[in-house]
Design brief:
2% strand; Helicase, Ruva Protein, domain 3; two-stranded parallel sheet; 329 residues; extended; Dynein_heavy_D6_P-loop; dynein intermediate chain binding; dynein light intermediate chain binding; 13 helices; mainly alpha; DHC
Length: 329
């Protein structure tokens, strides 16, 4: 009746076959028994084990608002009050914003990072712990050692995963621009309308985060607005490719209709139902009888023109589709 937890199973795919056999051949099993498996997506993962399992995925939320909300939802009031230094709360929020930014840039592909890096919650936790330790050991007269903070965040905590020189320069730039004495001034902002709130409780920060835009402009992450066009295009292509890949393939056996035969039949049915083109002379004559310059008739003529365009486009598309299936296009 116990629970079994197997972690990082993509590193031991051979054992999963033995696990599947052990579960399938067991004569009796306790109702309270559960097997939990953690794994990365891997093409070699046993498909029969995947199909018989209940799948959970844990992915970073999309957008600055969702990322910050997730981060602060996991914090408690004790986290905010762990240090009495006035720099603690702004630094904590700045690290959270940096954590969300480095994760969000991954969705832009090579425009975001030359190499996709797996930044995770452990990077944020380690960075927060470093900031806390640094403030605890800080000499109040000398203040924060910003060169140390920037180096640890840009080169060690997050930069430790980075292997590309330009990506390292990018992280160092974030650390230099966002972390310094200037971040405590009232006019500091990460980007327009993205500022450091002056809250005292976790609820104060969550209320401020709730006011942030749901959809972020790429400029928040230091990218050109055109980066969003590339991202949306790649996302649409990926979605369409996935749809095409899961379509049923032609079968060499069996008497069912092939995919091409189904499309051909539907195209023929649509062409039969499609009305003929409007005769422009008849339309003009009828409108003149009803009063061609009356507002309702002008509107009717515009609608007829648009419907004619739709009918012509549908007829051309279906005809070309049939020719393409026959290999004559």
């Amino acid at each position: 009746g116990g629970w079994l937890l197997l972690q990082n199973c993509h590193l031991g795919l051979e054992f999963l076959g033995e696990l599947m056999d052990a579960i399938a051949t067991t004569d009796s099993m306790n109702e309270g028994f559960r097997t939990w498996i953690t794994t990365e997506a891997h093409p070699g993962f046993p498909i029969n084990l995947l199909q018989t399992s209940i799948k959970f995925t844990n992915e970073p939320p999309q957008g600055v608002k969702a990322g910050l909300k997730r981060t602060y939802a996991a914090l408690t009031q004790d986290h905010l009050e762990v240090s009495n230094m006035p720099q603690w709360k702004p630094l904590l929020y700045a690290v959270a914003f940096l954590h969300t930014t480095v994760q969000e840039r991954r969705k832009f592909g090579p425009l975001g990072w030359n190499i996709p890096y797996e930044f995770n919650q452990a990077d944020f936790t380690a960075s927060v712990q470093f900031v806390q330790n640094h403030l605890d050991d800080m000499d109040v007269k000398r203040g924060v050692d910003w060169s140390c903070v920037r180096y640890m965040l840009g080169e060690v905590q997050y930069g430790g995963r980075v292997t590309d020189d330009l990506d390292k320069a990018l992280l160092s730039t974030y650390a230099r621009v966002w972390f310094g004495e200037h971040m405590f001034s009232d006019n500091f902002c990460f980007y327009k309308d993205y500022v450091i709130p002056r809250g005292k409780t976790v609820e104060d920060y969550l209320q401020y985060i709730e006011q942030l835009p749901v959809i972020d402009t790429p400029q928040v992450f230091g990218l050109h607005p055109n980066a969003d066009i590339t991202y949306q295009t790649n996302l649409a292509n990926e979605t369409l490719s996935t749809i095409v890949s899961i379509q049923p393939k032609d079968s060499s056996t069996g008497g069912g209709e092939t995919r091409e035969a189904v499309v051909q039949r539907l195209a023929d049915e649509m062409l039969e139902k499609l009305p003929p083109d409007y005769n422009p002379y008849e339309v003009k004559a009828q409108l003149q009888k009803m009063g061609a310059f009356q507002p309702i008739n002008i509107f009717l003529r515009q609608e007829i023109d648009r419907m004619q365009h739709v009918i012509s486009r549908v007829r051309t598309t279906l005809t070309d589709l049939k020719l393409a299936i026959d290999g004559k296009l």
